[in-house]
What does this fold into?
Amino acid sequence: MSAPATTNTPVVPPVIPGTGTNIIINPLQRGNLVLDCIRNVGKEFGDIIADYQVGRTTGVLFLSLKYHRLHPEYIHIRIEKLGHSYMLRILLILCDITEHRDAIRELTKVCIINNITVLVAFSFEEAGHYLSTLKQFEHKPPDMIKERVDKDYNAILRTALTSISKVNKTDVETLRTSFGSFANIAKATPDQLRNLPGFGQVKVKNIKNAFDKPVRNNATRTLPFVASQHVSSESAESSTQPGSQIKETLTSSQRPPREPSPV
It folds into this structure.
């Protein structure tokens, strides 16, 4: 007896997103006006989880606040489906309503919890520009946004000392020629600094405070609980001392009577 014939259903392979200069677009985004605002890069539709794939490891979800106001559950479902599919996950918000602050605030909280970056655009043009730029900068190194630090010793010395209030580049040159090194400047006495041209009392005080004062102060201390505990223990000890109850009674008796509260 021969085996029954089986019908082999052809398996449709998923669309492999391109790795070139094209932005991969989710078919759900067909008809979105932002597509006409994506310029200087190619576009193609592909089977992706995000709305726009602007890099091999970067996915973008697009959300109109007008749509979000009508369907607040939509973005939560999309974020859940997105999961950790991309190293960099972006929520591109189109701000197309007047009262937008509360909505953006709540969406930002959701994105912080899910480790998603928020970008806010106030027009389709701006949203398209964001997507185009993200794709164009896909392989760009972060040098453009990195702080540029000179490796020259004099430049580093100038940057460090001019961060002190009232100290300018001329003062730095005076300090360098007078003391030679940063260590010698830090060890200089107030009298030595006052003998330099252009160094008054305020400038000398600022320099010495920068080198001698601790970084932390009372405003930035990290042990307020210990301090309050110490104060409470002192007040407890003082209340047990003889005569403290008499003082408290006298103090309370000297207080003016309270006025009756209005009905």
